[in-house]
Design brief:
With 293 residues, this protein is α+β, with helices and mostly antiparallel strands. Helices cover 25% and strands 38% of the residues.
């Protein structure tokens, strides 16, 4: 920040000024500026759409999430749909991302852009819909995944992300592919894979301030364009919701995993923070008028 440097420079040259009255004025000015800047920097966190993104000045957002997903059997045809859901665990390393009790959930859907095979699954038309609940998080393992999704979709719409083409890809894939899962194991009884893709903020869904904050277009897509968010995931069939039935048929909730979302923000300092510095300048003006009087 530039103002602390200016204040520091003012203090460093004070010993060169012989006039004590001028010296006192400069000292006062530097102190007021430093106090105002300290107050504005520590005034508040960045809260958007009821969610705390961290300290003022945060220009990036990093979320971690848990999720459950439906299985896609090998050989499934183009257009076969997969759906999932989950909850946001942390935002910028904090699990306490809202004042009081609240939870961010999301649902997910996509479809195959290429016949399912090994070692890669290509998906298109991905949609990630985030919902904000005013209550503490629920235990997903006390009801079926269908019931969990119904609960999530009854909460307040927060923001939606849609798939962004990630061509050129590491593996050949049809145009329009926006998410790719590289499988480590993939058969009728076991699944383990690592996924990655890009997404854009949907301008017509959710809260306007959240849309504006996250719609940054700062992630390069490798083809000359820009996306808003990078999404990576790790998924396996090692742990599953005990309330679901899984015999590894397409459409069954057989998969659990974790996801990471990263992107930049359109952060703008709040007027209140800047006003604190203005109050310091106002104080200087009042002092001067008093001396003139």
């Amino acid at each position: 920040m530039i103002w602390p440097k200016i204040c520091s420079r003012l203090y460093s040259i004070m010993h060169l000024i012989p006039n004590k009255e001028i010296l006192m004025k400069i000292s006062y000015i530097a102190s007021v500026l430093a106090l105002g800047l300290f107050a504005s920097t520590n005034a508040s966190a960045v809260v958007v759409g009821g969610v705390d993104f961290g300290a003022t000045g945060t220009f990036q957002h990093i979320e971690t999430a848990t999720f459950a997903n439906t299985f896609i059997a090998p050989g499934s045809a183009v257009g076969t749909q997969t759906i999932g859901y989950g909850k946001v665990s942390t935002i910028n390393s904090s699990s306490d991302y809202c004042a009081g009790s609240c939870t961010l959930y999301y649902t997910y859907s996509a479809e195959l852009s290429q016949t399912a095979g090994v070692p890669v699954i290509n998906l298109t038309n991905s949609v990630y819909s985030f919902y904000l609940s005013g209550a503490s998080d629920i235990d997903f393992y006390t009801q079926t995944s269908a019931q969990n999704i119904a609960y999530i979709q009854a909460q307040s719409e927060w923001v939606r992300l849609t798939g962004h083409d990630i061509t050129p890809l590491i593996f050949p894939a049809p145009a329009g592919t926006d998410y790719q899962i590289i499988t480590l194991t993939y058969n009728a009884t076991s699944f383990q894979g690592l996924g990655s893709g890009l997404a854009d903020v949907d301008q017509n869904w959710g809260l306007a301030d959240v849309v504006s904050y996250l719609d940054s277009d700062q992630v390069t897509d490798g083809s000359g364009g820009f996306a808003d968010v990078t999404i990576t995931s790790s998924v396996s069939s090692a742990e599953r919701n005990p309330m679901d039935t899984c015999t590894f048929l397409t459409g069954q909730f057989c998969l659990d995993g974790t996801a990471n979302l990263r992107g930049s923000t359109n952060y703008v300092p709040e007027p209140g923070g800047l006003a604190l510095l203005g109050l310091g300048a106002l104080g200087l003006g009042v002092l001067r008028r008093r001396k003139v009087a």
